[in-house]
Amino acid sequence: MNVRPPLGLKSPLRIPHKLLMGPGPSNSSPRILNALSQPILGHMHSELFDKLHFFQIMDEIKKGIQYVFQTNNQLTLAISASGHAGMEAVLCNLLEPHDVVLILINGIWGERAANLAERYGAIVRKLVKTALGSNFSIIEIENAVKIHQPKLLFVVQGESSTGIYQPIIGIGEITRRYNCLLVVDTVASLGAVPFLMDKWKVDAAYSGSQKIIGAPPGLAPISFNERALKTIANRKTPIPVYFWDITLLGQQWNCFERSAPRLYHHTTSATLLYGLREGLAVIADEGLEQVIKRHQHCAAQLYEGIEALGMQLYVDEEHKRLPSVTTIKVPDGVDWRKVTEYAMKRYKLEISGGLGPTAGKVFRVGIMGYNATQENIVFVLDVLKEALKHSVTSSK
Ligand code: PMP
User: Fold this and answer.
1) Which residues are substrate-binding (predicted)?
2) pLDDT in tens, 268-324
């Protein structure tokens, strides 16, 4: 063999601790980290050990996802990949070539969904928010649905690139009236704001494991209601990607007929599922309402501290701000990159710059899961204050 073992692989892995206060991933709690070092079980292990087997863990995760989505949908599970996979899976299963899809865009995630939908052959219509830092009104949404008559309306509840919160309440009534499906991206928002999937008549939704749930990246909670399932059953063309095929995944997760044997679709990551199980269990322990309140309190504390530092928030109106990702305008004469580098080098603290339409214009501070504490907010504010002093550009 000519290729030598790489020198870098000769020593064991050591990862420094960093406080992740960017838009995700967040730090996992010790309980979750401990779960990640539990023994691997086979993905089809039904043997009972200490009253526990792998299918039971999957069932517990399913119930936990139903809880955080506030849904009774049977077709609820975790897809084996990050938040993007949730986006792929909803679009891949619900859209067919030439279907019209309407996408609300107030940051990069709506644009990303448009990109994916086009790859599945859909005709993409966009409703773009041009006023920076604002969300869509119900009237704007209804008008666009009336004009475009889409099969599916795609909405991002928490735009992590702009820090905008899009209320979902009331949209489901519109989509039902126009015989349209409502799909919601909750990757950056689930657990920081209410999401009442059934009550708000959301037909399909997905999230990510690594943000407010606080588990490692790599799993996407997802749920489809009966209306969405009917759309899938009535498809004229096959679901184009095997890996996202929710009818097969639903059989692996025992979402359909209780007595049917589970199907092997793919080898799930036992370790990641343990982490997600614990992340959901921690939320269930604390109570979803309390988790949401904790995030909102921390966000209010951050807003106050930012204004006290003389900085401005990117989203003017407080009710339009996403509590889990705060966008803060980069003050004139400050090099944003120097600030984030200072925070990381000096304090091992991650805060991020902007993304897409906010690139170079804002800092993004994440308040997510285990990291959503008053102490961490005080720390972020202290570090920001110090970092700003060290990051004034000489040219301005
Ligand atoms: N949607 C939103 C709103 C997000 O914030 C993100 C991740 N930042 C994604 C989708 C994509 O998730 P992932 O990076 O886990 O694939």
Assistant:
1) 364
2) 999 999 999 999 999 999 999 999 999 999 999 999 999 999 999 999 999 999 999
Q: Looking at the structure, do residues 248 and 298 belong to the same domain, yes or no?
A: no
Q: Which of 259, 284, 309 is the last residue of a domain?
A: 284
Q: State if residue 150 touches ligand 1 by the CB under 6 angstroms criterion.
A: no
Ligand 1 within 6 A of 109 CB?
yes
**Domain boundary at 226, 254, 284, which?**
284
> Which CATH number covers residue 189?
3.40.640.10
**Strand-by-strand arrangement of the 362-366 sheet:** 325-329, 362-366, 352-353
Domains contained in the chain, number: 2
How far does residue 159's CA lie from ligand 1's centre (Å)? Answer: 9
Closest CA to 207 of 372, 353, 305, 64: 64
Could you tell me if the CB of 157 is within 6 A of ligand 1? no
Beta bridge partners of 105: 128
Ligand 1 centroid, distance to 328 Cα (angstroms): 20
Q: From ligand 1's centre to the CA of 178, what distance in Å?
A: 28
Are 181 and 310 found together in one domain? no
Tell me what pLDDT residue 396 has. 46
Is residue 327 assigned to a domain? yes
Residue ranges making up the domain that contains 108: 30-284
Phi, psi of 392 (to 5 degrees): -75, 130
Contact 379, 335 (CB under 8 A): no
ipTM over 0.90: yes
Tens of pLDDT, residues 210-260:
999 999 999 999 999 999 999 999 999 999 999 999 999 999 999 997 778
What proportions of the chain, in percent to the nearest 5, are helix, strand and coil? 40, 15, 45
CB of 192 sitting under 6 A from ligand 1: no
Residue 347 DSSP SS3? helix
203 and 333 share one domain: no
Question: Residue 365: inside a domain, yes or no?
Answer: yes
Q: CA 236 to CA 225: how far, in whole Å?
A: 20
Reported pTM: 0.97
Within the chain, which residues score under 50 in pLDDT? 396
SS3 assignment, position 382: helix
Q: Whose CA is nearest to atom 13 of ligand 1?
A: 83
What span, in angstroms and rounded, lies between the C-alpha atoms of 34 and 67? 23
346: annotated binding-site residue? no
